[in-house]
Specification:
The complex is a heterodimer of chains A (about 775) and B (about 170).
Chain A (H helix, E strand, L loop, with lengths): L18 H5 L15 E7 L5 E7 L1 H5 L3 E5 L1 H4 L30 E2 L5 E7 L2 H8 L3 E6 L6 H4 L15 E9 L2 H5 L4 E13 L7 E7 L4 E6 L4 H12 L6 E4 L15 H13 L3 E4 L2 H7 L2 E13 L5 E13 L7 H9 L8 E10 L13 H19 L3 H8 L8 E6 L5 E4 L4 H11 L5 H10 L3 E13 L5 E7 L5 E5 L8 H13 L6 E5 L16 H28 L6 E4 L2 E4 L2 E7 H9 L14 E7 L5 E13 L6 E11 L6 H20 L30 E6 L16 H17 L14 H14 L1
Parallel strand pairs in A: 1-12, 10-11, 14-15, 20-21, 27-28
Antiparallel strand pairs in A: 1-5, 2-4, 2-6, 3-5, 7-15, 8-13, 9-10, 9-12, 13-14, 16-17, 18-26, 19-20, 19-25, 22-23, 23-24, 26-27
Helix pairs in contact in A: 7-8, 10-11, 11-12, 11-19, 15-16, 18-19
Chain B lengths: L4 E7 L2 E7 L5 H8 L18 E4 L2 E4 L12 E3 L13 H8 L9 H15 L6 H8 L10 H11 L12
Parallel strand pairs in B: 1-5
Antiparallel strand pairs in B: 1-2, 3-4, 3-5
Helix pairs in contact in B: 2-5, 4-5
The chains are: A alpha+beta (about 775), B alpha+beta (about 170).
């Protein structure tokens, strides 16, 4: 596939269809939904990191005026088909069943775990009532640091699991012993990495309504995965597919956590069914910090073997991953870290032992980047270390290790988590790095550094390369339908949380049918509109839903052309679709409206359809990617660091990014820049901290810092377009990739800035206090 | 039900009255008592800025102000920037044009912050650092801020009589 074969609608920055309502304040987010008789929900949550529930006395709470019901596990269990919510993804590595309960049954395993659900006339009253519930909890020892949790004498994080090693897995290939035998360069390093939560500015939320006439449950859910939510509700509530509709309203950001089906989603739906009244729960920010999944801590211990010229021979080591108290996902998060470590480099041998340790903290699952920033951080730190040991330039050591363009498609030797070969499909990594260095004037940096030093400022530069597996399957589905009114309706299981999914799909449909994108109505993620679907994860929707819509719209186009060709008695190749009409090329008066064709295909009683036509101007398509498609990029950043205050100021940030063809270049830029800033937050600011007993310490945005407009640099984005052969659009995902290299490149730049002091960066985040301590230690050692 | 209180105030130039508990904050009053759901709530502790509104012309975190404190005062919300069906305010149009929003949840607060800045500047040119400083109290997780900074610079530095009718 070449760039010249660009499909229709690809490569145009169509203005976003989402924007008009949003800038007017007319979006419809979860908490904007009101229904007659609506009950408001609050949860009583565990104040203990670990404990045994002796009793829950709700009498006083239920007596409070305005309180409708207070529900405990035993009240909801009769509605459910099973004790636990079966959320764990298939994984042979998981040793124990640590699926969550709808409400705590007899053991609480993290601060914030829901214990009771209060339904009241207002959220205020529900929270008042929560304070009146008497819960007697016997505290139990908590596992906070996963390294301690793996010690033989560690307390149990969960009484139903004999030990805390919930899963052990590995990523390995090649002859690792041979790689290390006689290696001219050998060293070992430890890294303590942290990545925070998703922190969508809209927290989670659910509104559920049970219709007793139709015996049907409707759930408005601020989710990335409506179809998965539906399936879990069907399973746990013992309903049929017909009886459950999940629909996402406007969703105020996802970033990973809204992938996960949390216990509250079932609790609210069950409460609506039990009471027969609609129920709303809108998560507040404190709940978001203590009860929404996060990413958190990884402890890496790595050994490096390299040749004297800086080429990697092998990497081996261990990764201890903080899993949290439940498994809402599986082992994918640390496995992504392990596999993404490879990056765009030739690594002949690799052996990583991965331990997932249960802890008494909120479960961990992917947030934007999904473990990949950590793997990339390890590899890029190691390459910087090799360069330093050998006296090589950091760009040169990378150049020597990059996979040459002519070796693509390149089989890495690892398996993806669904068991496929991990094969990089397309790209030119060396050219990508070359362009990034040129754009950032890498070669001119020594002069800028010298000028800064003369003023007493510490300026550094860093670079990092990465790949990202995107467009994960198994499929996404779509339909395109035009009725006699002429309205074009697209349905899909994909759904947006700000990415511009509606615009992207309308753009592709409009281009195929000669209709303005603004006239295409996209119904995304409504399980009534799309019987099948998956949703937003793994930077996948442009690849999977985009391809499905492209295929479906192409079929509709073919139907239009076939009917018009018959009616107008001209060859289909001589027809074109413009502004809702199909007409003879160059003679627009010779044609018919698409609405006419839709009307004809809708049929009239007793009359035949146009010759050879199937009923309805409609088509459906599913796109099943054969394999994951890998985007890649290079980031270069300059940082000024004050070693006395530890403050880092990023003065320049350049990205060269290759996600194949760009459907809507401006929206892709928006994804990259937003991702970079998320990654800068991971690098410098975001840190979810706990005390030694498992109490969370950073539960406000004054304690847990997100990157703000005044501390982030302007991000300069350049694109390469290496189309992938793996889908008809030639596109790769772009939603997460901006985050992936940011911690690595910032670390590289910060370390470079403080090189005169001999500071070594091994841990994330690089907070001011940590940098000051490192600078002090380095000065003391010097 | 707890005691309630009648609260009269001006919202987007219109007199409005609602009945609420004294503990109801201004954000909830606007959203749930008056039905103006354009003002969003992101943190309820005054940091994220999603709930920013103008009270007597000054930006306020409506999650940190009680509704009763707004009695008799003039409140402006995102709904006041452009009437239904009317053309967008230049700041709204520029945010869209420069891709300064994605999910749109923080957007109403961003707009009210920029409206206040626009009035404070009253035509004086502004640089990127000043815009970034003004926006530092509005958390956005989607955009990386760049598009909203560009939107603000485009509107605030537009030639007089150009894209800035909003100079009351």
């Amino acid at each position: 596939m070449t760039l010249a074969e660009r499909p229709a609608g690809v490569g145009i920055s169509v203005p976003r269809l989402e924007d008009d309502a949003l800038v007017r304040g007319k979006g419809r987010f979860l908490d904007d939904i009101t229904l007659p008789g609506l009950l408001h929900a609050a949860f009583l949550r565990s104040p203990e990191a670990h404990g045994h529930i002796r009793s829950i006395d709700v009498a006083e709470a239920e007596a409070l005026p305005g309180v409708h019901r207070v529900l405990r596990y035993e009240d909801l269990r009769p509605l459910l088909t099973m004790d636990r919510i079966p959320v764990a993804m298939p994984s042979g590595a998981l040793k124990f069943d640590v699926d969550p309960f709808v409400l705590a049954r007899d053991e609480v395993c993290h601060v914030g775990e829901p214990i009771a659900l209060i339904l009241a006339e207002s959220r205020h009253v529900a929270e008042d009532a929560a304070e009146l519930i008497m819960v007697d909890i016997d505290p139990l020892p908590a596992v906070v640091d996963p390294r301690d949790g793996l010690a033989p004498d560690a307390p149990q994080a969960r009484l139903d699991c004999p030990d805390n090693l919930v899963a052990r897995t590995s990523a390995a290939y090649g002859d690792i012993d041979a790689a290390f035998a006689d290696a001219p360069v050998r060293f070992a390093e430890r890294f303590h990495l942290h990545k925070g939560g998703g922190n969508s500015i809209e927290p989670r939320g659910v509104v559920a309504r049970w219709d007793p006439m139709e015996e049907r449950l409707t759930v408005w859910n601020s989710t990335q995965m409506p179809h998965r939510a539906k399936r879990l509700l069907v399973t746990t509530l013992g309903l049929t597919e017909r009886q459950v509709r999940v629909v996402p309203p406007d969703v105020g950001g996802g970033f990973g956590p809204k992938f996960v089906f949390h216990p509250e989603e079932l609790a609210i739906a069950a409460a609506a069914k039990l009471t027969g009244l609609p129920v709303k729960w809108a998560e507040d920010r404190y709940e978001s910090f203590i009860a929404t999944v996060q990413e958190r801590d990884q402890f890496w211990s790595m050994e490096v073997a390299a040749d004297a010229d800086g080429r990697l021979r092998g990497l081996r080591g261990t990764l201890v991953h903080d899993h949290g108290a439940y498994t809402p996902y599986g082992v994918a998060l640390p496995y992504n870290s392990a596999t993404n470590l490879l990056g765009p480099y030739v690594l002949p041998a690799y052996a990583l032992d991965i331990s997932l340790c249960l802890t008494n903290k909120v479960p961990t699952t992917p947030t934007r980047g999904a473990g990949r920033p950590q793997g990339t951080f390890i590899m890029e730190r190691i390459l910087d270390l090799i360069a330093e040991r050998l006296g090589l330039a950091r760009d040169e050591v990378r150049r020597r290790n990059l996979i040459a363009a002519e070796r693509l498609p390149f089989r890495t030797g690892l398996k993806t988590r669904d068991g496929g070969e991990m094969t990089y499909d397309s790209g030119d990594y060396a050219e990508c790095q070359r362009r990034a260095l040129a754009a950032a004037d890498w070669n001119g940096f020594p002069e800028r550094r010298a000028a800064a030093r003369r003023e007493g400022r510490f300026l550094g530069i860093g670079l990092a390369n990465y790949v990202e597996g995107t467009g994960r399957g198994p499929f996404e589905s779509a339909s395109v339908t035009i009725g006699p009114s002429g309205e074009v309706v697209v349905t899909t299981g994909a759904c947006g949380q700000g990415q511009g999914t509606v615009t992207m799909l309308a753009q592709l449909t409009g281009a195929a049918l000669g209709i303005a994108p603004a006239k295409v109505r996209v119904i995304a993620g409504d399980t009534d509109a799309s019987p099948l679907g998956l949703g937003a994860f793994a930077s996948r929707q442009a690849v999977t839903a985009g391809s499905a819509v492209h295929l479906a719209a192409g079929k509709v186009r073919d139907k239009i052309l076939a009917v018009a060709s018959d009616w107008l008695e001209v060859a289909a190749e001589d027809l074109e679709l413009i502004d809702g009409r199909v007409s003879l090329r160059g003679a627009p008066e010779v044609g018919r409206s698409i609405a006419d064709i839709a009307a004809a295909l809708s049929g009239s009683p007793g009359f035949s359809l146009p010759k050879g036509a199937e009923p309805g101007l409609s088509a459906a398509a599913d796109f099943q990617p054969d394999a994951i498609t890998y985007c890649n990029g290079t980031h270069v950043a300059e940082a000024e660091v004050d070693p006395f205050t530890g403050v880092v100021r990023l003065t320049r940030y350049v990205v060269v990014h290759d996600c194949g063809r760009l459907i809507n270049p401006r929206m892709v830029d928006g994804q990259i820049i937003g991702g970079v800033v998320h990654g800068i937050g991971s690098a410098l600011y975001e840190w979810m901290r706990y005390d030694a007993t498992g109490q969370p310490l950073t539960c406000t945005y004054s304690d847990y810092l997100l990157a703000t407009a005044d501390v982030v640099p302007r991000v300069e984005v350049h694109h390469m377009e290496s189309p992938t052969p793996l889908n008809p659009l030639g596109v790769k995902g772009a939603g997460e990739s901006g985050t992936i290299a940011a911690p690595a490149v910032v670390a590289s730049a910060v370390e470079d800035a403080l090189r005169p002091l001999g500071v070594a960066i091994r841990d994330l985040p690089m907070t001011p206090d940590r940098l000051v301590r490192l600078a002090r230690q380095a000065r003391a050692a010097a | 039900m707890a005691d309630t209180i009648e609260i009269s105030l001006t919202v987007n130039g219109q007199p409005r009255t609602g009945v609420a508990e004294p503990r109801r904050n201004l954000a909830d009053f606007l959203r749930h008592t008056l039905g103006l759901t354009g003002t969003h709530v992101g943190c309820e502790h005054g940091v994220c800025g999603a709930c920013t509104v103008l009270v007597d012309g000054a930006s306020v975190r409506s999650c940190l102000m009680l509704a009763v404190q707004a009695r008799g005062r003039s409140v402006e919300t995102v709904e006041g920037l452009a009437a239904d069906g009317a053309p967008l305010h230049p700041l709204q149009a520029a945010l869209s044009e420069h891709h300064g929003l994605q999910c749109g949840y923080c957007t109403p607060g961003v707009l009210m912050t920029l409206l206040e800045l626009q009035r404070e500047l009253s035509g004086r040119p502004v640089d990127e650092a000043e815009v970034r400083h003004a926006l530092a109290g509005n958390l956005c997780r989607c955009t990386g801020y760049q598009g909203m900074v560009d939107a603000a610079l485009a509107v605030l530095n537009a030639p007089a009589g150009g894209a800035t009718p909003e100079t009351r």
